[in-house]
# Entry
Amino acid sequence: MTDPGRSGDDPRDAELIARWKAGNQRAASELVQRHASALARFAVSCGAREDVDELVQDTFVRAFGSLDGFRGDSSFRTWLFTIERRLLMDRRRSEKRRPQGMEINEGDAATEFDALDDLVADEAQIRVRRAIERLTPTQREVFVLRVTEGMSYREIAQAVSTTEGAARVHYHNAMRAIKEFLDA
Amino acid sequence: MRECANGEMRDLLPDLLHDRLTAELRIVVQAHVDGCADCRAELAILRRVMAINVAPRVDASRIAAAVPPYRGQSAWGRAANSPLVRIAAAILLLAGAAAVITNAAGRSRPPEPVPQTVQAPVSPANVEPAPVPTAPPRGPTTGVAHRAPMELAVGESFHDLSDAELRTLLEELGKLEAVTSTETEAVAPSLGRGGQ
# Structure
């Protein structure tokens, strides 16, 4: 049994949202501090290389702008991931439409973290990174949210607009693919 | 690298890593991992994944400064979020759709057949003089000219008439023809066919 309070419906988030609505702008700052790093990590894991800061900012601006429409079906954190994922997809679409832009295919993902490889001294970690890069976009999203953010399948399903069962299948398929790559 | 056959335990490894398990379950999962080389190997992969997914630096204060102050919700926004308004909108939508479907179904329905006039066998007693048919209009506007020839009211039961009744009927018709000798066209062909 997992602890639903850890990354689920965080009462601190609800309290901060209420304070922000009451006019306390510092509450918004605290919410940003609490979740900005996770959003940035998710963006990079999903292949965002440029303007991660801007992407995270857009996510927060959009979230706060439509906070009255947030019904609380998911946690605030999960909702932020949902918004960021949509922004990422919009960004990918516009990049594909750009005539002179380079089309990003799944095979190109292998080059996404070349610069970061320099920072990762461990050869085994570099191989794990390469294995993650080869996952399909959905597998990668699900795997990263499950492993890096520790989200439950229910939360992941809400964030990536799928079902809990499908999220579980994506996770295990991703793990299998990573193991196969590491064994090769 | 092999895969542990215990899928439930494998499912819980990320939760073990993030300390999201209850105390009792953590003991169970940890005991399994201690005795399972495959799960230990998988857990090592998960630790590496966590280690490499380092968050890039983001300027949280700049991001927070971009967040606008809360302005409250407009009357329209509040109304749109009201469950009652949503239900009412859904009902209106369904009613509109039903009206459109009903309208479309009414247009595509074939015209109802005109019930055939069947009357009781005609006896001489109840034969009344037929009204004098008016001459069909001539010329280009002769919509009536294309109408089917007038049928005698006897219809199908014409065959049920006895010889005496037929004779009487013919006599009556003969009188009619005498009266409207110039306009028998609409009646006579039908009678001629009916006599077969």
The CA atoms of residues 109 and 142 of chain A lie 17 Å apart.
